[in-house]
Give the backbone structure.
Amino acid sequence: MSKKILIVDDEPDIIAFLGALLDENGYASVSAKDGTEGLELLRDEKPDLVLLDLMMPKKSGITMFQELRKDPDLSSVPVVVVTGVSEVTGVDFRNFMFKQPMRDEKKFVETTGLTKYTVPDGYIEKPIDPDELIRTIKEIFKE
């Protein structure tokens, strides 16, 4: 049975590209266009991994990432951030966004064991290098 990967991105071309790439490499995929829909699909579809864009309408990938890491039912799902935000902003989000203090951190650490230094399982910059993405996914799945 192939692993299921949730793609969360607001760009239809990126979703189509990633879906085709995953299919070519033996993975099933489902997709969402924003963080709100992404969290719903995460709960309904129970994917094995999430490919997550950061800058999206309604609910950003940053917020979705923080919410799924706080949810005991979702926190173990691996997340690979796939974003062009550093190119657009000049900020190195690979290190910046995941090292900021979370709200109510003491309670969060006590309930999850995670700290403010919780990071995604992978980070891929856009434009996406297909080989790098597949290599990252295989490393996470220990394939």
Notes: Residues 8 and 37 are 8 Å apart (CA to CA).
